[in-house]
């Protein structure tokens, strides 16, 4: 097997194991929310006056995709919309109490994930970590470009 095929196989294994760990460690009330929905909740909780345009930019998704996610989150009672006094045209979003619980749980899970995986990374030497970091930086740039290309087509 070529090195590139082996790497793709290893990435597939990694994604599957991360997905399994996520499912095994997730709290019951997170079930029923997709990856994009949870990350949309996360950005709504972090941004000042979040709107579709800001969320689209942060999540690297089209405005129409964000609008669909927003509709689902409103229907599930995780977010609500509002308008500012000085701009009655623009619609903004904020977390409901339920959305705040989801936001907090998401951050709690991220911290637990970091603590869990740091135990592994601490065992690696600096040279290996630098090599992996360099590779992942390049690969992420490649993936970001692919996302931009796909968003541009829509």
UniProtKB/TrEMBL annotation:
Residues 4-141 form the HTH marR-type domain. The keyword Magnesium does not apply. Coiled coil: none annotated. GO terms for molecular function: DNA binding; DNA-binding transcription factor activity. Keywords: DNA-binding, Transcription, Transcription regulation. PROSITE patterns: HTH_MARR_1, HTH_MARR_2. PANTHER family: HTH-TYPE TRANSCRIPTIONAL REGULATOR PCHR. This is MarR family transcriptional regulator. It comes from Vallitalea guaymasensis.
